[in-house]
Amino acid sequence: MKRKRNIKSPLKTMLIYTASKVEQVYFGQVRKDCRYTNMTVKSVKELKDFPNFISQAGRERTKGSYSSVWAFFGFSDFENFDPKELEENLKLAKKKKIHLCWIKPNLNLWIYLHLALPTTYVLEDSSFEQQLEKAISGYSLTSEYLSGKGQNLHLVLFSKFSKAILNEKQYNIISRQKTGIPATNIDKLYLEIHDICGNGDITHNQKTLSKK
Q1: Is 128 buried (19+), middle (13-18) or exposed (0-12) by CB count in 10 A?
Q2: Which residues make Cβ contacts (< 8 Å) with residue 21, sequence separation at least 6?
Q3: For a designed S-S bond to 52, which of 48, 77, 174, 187 qualifies (C-beta 3.0 to 4.6 A apart)?
Q4: pLDDT at position 66
Q5: pLDDT tens column, 83-98
Q6: What pLDDT does residue 199 have?
Q7: 3-state DSSP assignment of residue 72
Q8: Residue 143 belongs to domain spanning
């Protein structure tokens, strides 16, 4: 009997390369909670300037032969980051074959969007942080918190994901009017995650969480 050839396409892989340890830990939660076995999350070993961060992400892409690489950063990761640097370095990112995902000022915004929509453009990060500290017991945007007391933060917020995406779109309108660019394009990153990694399977984690 003639054996059938296995014509299944090889599994695509993706890398999320972050500018800080706290971002790495957060997306590590995403990977673990959703059981994305073909997702890798790494953070830069030494953050210098923005072009260097892009170049390091490019080297990781080559070294790991990933299907898709996203360099994730918050504006606050870089001292006095000028939004013009985004446009100035798009050609470099394209040359290195990586995607850029940004958030202004940092992950506090993305987490806050799961809970509420800012009605005006927020200048100070402390405003988001103060509100999150009131809403989430013990909250702190640190790798220590996300690795400890906040290790289930992504799982807790998961059911509010659709709300966060809707709030992101609305807040980006406000951001464009104020600064000329969206505050974040994290929705594009999640579209790629869905395309490459599929739907997240969090059923086991939800059962574990409900027992606590």
Answers
A1: buried
A2: 43, 143
A3: 48
A4: 97
A5: 899 999 999 999 999 9
A6: 83
A7: strand
A8: 14-210
Whole-angstrom distance, CA of residue 117 vs CA of residue 131: 12
| Helical axes 161-179 vs 186-197, angle rounded to 10° | 140
Let me know: does 126 contact 106? Beta carbons within 8 Å: no
Asked if residue 121 belongs to a domain, the reply is yes
Cis status of the peptide bond prior to 105, with omega within 30 of 0: yes
Q: What is the pLDDT of residue 202?
A: 72
Q: What pLDDT, in 10s, does the model give residues 163-191?
A: 999 999 999 999 999 999 999 999 999 99
The answer to the question of residue 126 being in a domain is yes
3-state helix, strand, coil in the chain (%, to 5): 55, 10, 35
Candidates 132, 117, 106, 108; CA nearest to 165 is 117
In a domain, 49, yes or no: yes
Number of domains into which the chain is organized: 1
